[in-house]
TrEMBL record:
<dbReference type="InterPro" id="IPR001387">
    <property type="entry name" value="Cro/C1-type_HTH"/>
</dbReference>
<feature type="domain" description="HTH cro/C1-type">
    <location>
        <begin position="19"/>
        <end position="78"/>
    </location>
</feature>
<protein>
    <submittedName>
        <fullName>Helix-turn-helix transcriptional regulator</fullName>
    </submittedName>
</protein>
<dbReference type="Pfam" id="PF01381">
    <property type="entry name" value="HTH_3"/>
</dbReference>
<dbReference type="InterPro" id="IPR010982">
    <property type="entry name" value="Lambda_DNA-bd_dom_sf"/>
</dbReference>
<dbReference type="GO" id="GO:0003677">
    <property type="term" value="F:DNA binding"/>
</dbReference>
Length: 109
């Protein structure tokens, strides 16, 4: 029996959620990199971009704590799979697409 868990790929969850939090705040990848560096976790913009696209190695504990500090959120907000889009709660109205998550709801027929 195979089960699917939100912990199957924690790195993907962390960087997906970090991207959503970054976009909600209107921050560029450079701004996030600068804030992480100021928080004691030197990070280049290219690293942020690669992490968000899944091209970097597994998330480290120090990066997880730095992201939580910079976004001022509990670690659960980064590791969990709960809704982060405050406008649509990850479910936009029928016929619309969420600017944060890209989800499109189709009208009922």
């Amino acid at each position: 029996m195979t089960t699917t868990s939100r912990f199957t790929d924690p790195t993907k969850a962390v960087f997906r959620n970090a991207r959503l939090l970054r976009l909600q705040r209107g921050w560029t990848a450079q701004k996030l990199a600068d804030l992480l560096t100021e928080a004691g976790r030197p990070t280049a913009r290219s690293v942020v971009a690669k992490q968000e696209k899944g091209f970097k190695q597994a998330v480290t504990v120090d990066m997880l704590f730095a992201l939580a500090h910079v976004f001022e959120v509990p670690i659960d907000a980064l590791t969990g799979d709960g809704p982060l889009c405050q406008n649509c709660n990850d479910t936009p109205p029928a016929g619309y697409q969420c600017n944060l998550c890209g989800l499109t709801s189709h009208p009922s027929r």
